[in-house]
Automatic annotation (TrEMBL):
Residues 28-140 form the DUF7144 domain. It comes from the Bacteria. It comes from Arthrobacter mangrovi. InterPro entries: DUF7144. The chain crosses the membrane at residues 20-51, 71-90, 95-114, 120-138. This is Membrane protein. Keywords: Membrane, Transmembrane, Transmembrane helix. It holds the Pfam family DUF7144.
Length: 149
């Protein structure tokens, strides 16, 4: 039985579309806020690496090793991109969601490579990046199916 009221789906067992859009907006809002916070963390990492080269110390047992100043610039630029991406995510546009997944994925890879310098901080940012990716990809509006299948 199809319902003719506005905001209702054709399946009587499904909640109204309005509930999907509220949950979707909350998920995207959460991802945007976390993205801005992760970007701010990146900016802080970058500024610390730029202003004090001796703050981060790396052990000798890691295969890859990078200059701390170049990491500082990388984190600073990545942080600014994450903040702008998080702000764009508030629009809820598909391009902003794609950008959010790409930037959070790059941030996770960058922080994985940052683990030798500051393991706890890098792991925290990786967790935030995974939460961002989950929140953007688990958008309830996209989980609905149209038709009988």
């Amino acid at each position: 039985m199809a319902s003719s009221s506005v905001g209702r789906t054709t399946d009587p067992g499904r909640p109204p579309d309005r509930e999907y859009s509220v949950a979707a907006a909350g998920t995207i809002l959460m991802a945007g806020v976390i993205m801005i916070i992760a970007g701010a963390f990146h900016i802080l990492q970058g500024l610390v690496a730029l202003f004090d080269d001796q703050f981060y110390v790396v052990g000798t047992e890691y295969i890859y090793r990078f200059d701390v100043t170049s990491w500082g610039w990388t984190h600073l630029i990545g942080g600014v991109l994450l903040v702008f991406g998080g702000a764009a995510l508030f629009r809820g546009a598909v391009w902003a969601r794609i950008l959010a997944v790409v930037l959070a994925s790059l941030s996770a890879v960058m922080n994985f490579m940052w683990l030798p310098y500051y393991p706890l901080w890098g792991a925290l940012i990786i967790v935030l990046d995974v939460v961002i990716i989950w929140a953007v990809l688990a958008h309830p509006r996209d989980l609905r199916t149209r038709g009988p299948f």
